[in-house]
Write a structure and sequence with these properties.
The protein is an alpha+beta fold. Helices cover about 15% and strands about 25% of the residues. The protein is built from 7 helices and 11 strands. The chain has helices at about 1-20, 35, 55-60, 80, 245-250, 255, 270, and strands at about 25-30, 90-95, 105-110, 115-120, 140-145, 145-155, 160, 165, 170-180, 185-190, 200-210. The strands form 2 sheets. A 9-stranded mixed barrel has the order 1-2-3-4-5-6-9-10-11. Strand 3 (about 105-110) and strand 4 form a beta hairpin. The radius of gyration is 22 Å and the shape is globular. Mean pLDDT is about 85; it is low at about 1-15 and about 285-290.
Amino acid sequence: MFFLLTLLVILPASSALAQVDLTGLWAPLVHEDAPQRGTGSLVGDFTGLPMSQANLLRSESWAADMMDLAEWVCRPYSSDDGLYAGPAQLSISKEVDRTTQQTTAYHTHIFYHEQEQTIWMDGRPHPPDYALHTWAGFSTGEWEGDTLLYTTTHLKESFIERNGPVRSDRATVRTRLRSYGNYLTAVVITYDPVYLTAPFVRIESWAYSPEMVMRPYPCEEATETVVPRGKVPHYLPGKNAMLTDFAAQYGIPPEAALGGAETLYPEYIARMKKMKLLPRPAKKAAAESGGEDQ
């Protein structure tokens, strides 16, 4: 009996000891997928993305000037994509119940577009499907050893790459947050029944930086291009001549550049060897990058 009582006391304490302190200021490390997190992938580069045909169709209609629409200039990043942004300085704080001294929530703040997220740790359920969808979504978390695992639903539709690919508002995002000494890593897995045919995995890392200054990110609508208000730059299906430039420039079969879950695996290389290549394209005029107005 004494042994059982001792075990009941030790087990909760051991579980609590497995939790680690993730709070503080974290500076982003962008050595992973640096081009995507910086200027973004090239037009037509969908390699390694498990895109559905609906996602591919939307991505082919994307035009670079779309990002300069007045309505998009200060558009927030979603919480899953905000972690992945290049200048994603990260601040993590926690909320503690004064009576039980248990952590009830973690709060994250990202410098870029000042995205904030609450991760509830008190066991509350996710809201029903018809509840409000936001850029932050609704997140609940739990500890798996020394890893904070949290699940996010109720996100607004957002992009997953800067050159067109998107995920829907029906997506579920599971994030595993773990520290390794002075380094923090997030493994973000997106499940989307609409625009993805397989889980989409991204990894982000930060270094602990207590001296970092988290500055505000004021944003005001500004006219950056000649796109008139109410006009939406786009390409009609089959009309975007730049989509094959990436494949031709890097010697990749156009079919492989269109992405898909099969392109995630090394076995796909054997199939690529049987595909046709395009000749190297001539340089396009800069004026062709805007798309067609609607």
